[in-house]
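Readers outside the structure-tokenisation community will struggle with the description of the input data as it stands. For illustration, here is how one protein appears when written out as sequence plus structure tokens:
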Amino acid sequence: MKRFILPLLLLPLAAFADDAVAAVAAVAEPVLNSGDTAWMMMSTALVMLMTPIGLALFYGGMTRSKNVLNTYAMVFGAFAVGFIAWVIAGFSIAFGTMEGPMNQVIGGFGHLMLGGISWTEFASVDLGQLYPKFVFVVFQGTFAAITVAIVAGSVIERMKFSTWMVFAAIWTIVVYAPITHMVWGGGYLFNEGALDFAGGTVVHMNGGLAGLVLAVLIGKRAGYPKTAMKPASVVLTAVGAGLLWFGWYGFNGGSAFGANAIAGVAYLTTTIAAAVATVTWIILESMVFKKATLLGAATGAIAGLVAITPAAGFVGVSGAFIIGIVGALIAFFGVTVLKKKLGYDDSLDAFGVHFLAGLWGAVATGIFALNDKALLWSGPLKDADDRMGQIMVQLESVLVVGLFTLVGTVVVYYVAMAITGGARVNEEQESQGLDESVHGERGFNL
């Protein structure tokens, strides 16, 4: 009899236990974090501002007056087609998941046109990123768009607008997206433990080297380097630099993926590096050329911002100072010495500033990263061997990204050229200026 009575007595307890488990499950259900959501949406807007406004003005002011409008159009257009390409296939390749060895390079095609992603889905519950995944998609899309826009700085004043637009779309999918997956999306370099907080390798090295490759393939501007090619408006360039600096708080701060203490670290180190790089460039110009220029100050600020980008959330105050100073020194050397020595025509110094300062920042991240488990993705460094190992991983990431960018950019260039029937404008158009000959407009009606 006891065999039957005891289970009957336990039935209410079992029901209570089931209710308790259900209650715990309900409590554990992820809930949207409105603070982080607001921060990530604001960061996305700041990064968006960097391209069709900040970079467009920065580049537009440095070009000759007859090509100001075309330069702005190339940056503006790159943002548009780059983001479209990102939504169609770039995001899936960068942050999708697939089985097999190819996952080391690409994430797959399961999210083409953002298929399979719900508007109610969170960015990453496992990592505590409780904001909409669609916000993450847009945030990362602005990174893709500015990266391809950086490339334009090397080939303005002589590349066909139609070829550029085709190149920008294909390059975003074929070059940018796989590199993003390798570094950030769970691919080879991510698994190796490479550190890139906000895009030293993914954005700046990638865009700067692609620019140099295009500049070499398409050839020098007519008259370069003998003909004087003065900037249309240094003031526009300085305004653009200021807007880029402002937007960089979303670029680096947003890469903490939340309104948190790491975003605060990124804010501080970003400001320090940009400020000391600006002053370093002013001092260098005063020593070498006996005059400190506004163009130089603006360029120095961008060099410092580029250099700190891969390290922003990983380093402290002293690291930020050194990274900013050395970033300016290296970029100054690239712009004033290396460019003349090698003779390439990198119109607006995308390679000298973005690639060289980005390369330094990527390596410096391994040198100056704080030994703090809360900051480093792969856990704290244990000893000197770990530090050297991290530096070697950073060097590996530089080499892998550089090689992939080099080969991929060459391939995409010839594909785009085949589609549009050539990459370079004719001599008459180049002489007249691309504002009127290509767009039928003027940047300045003076």
In short: The chain has one domain: 34-439. Residues 6-11, 20-27 have pLDDT under 50 and may be disordered.
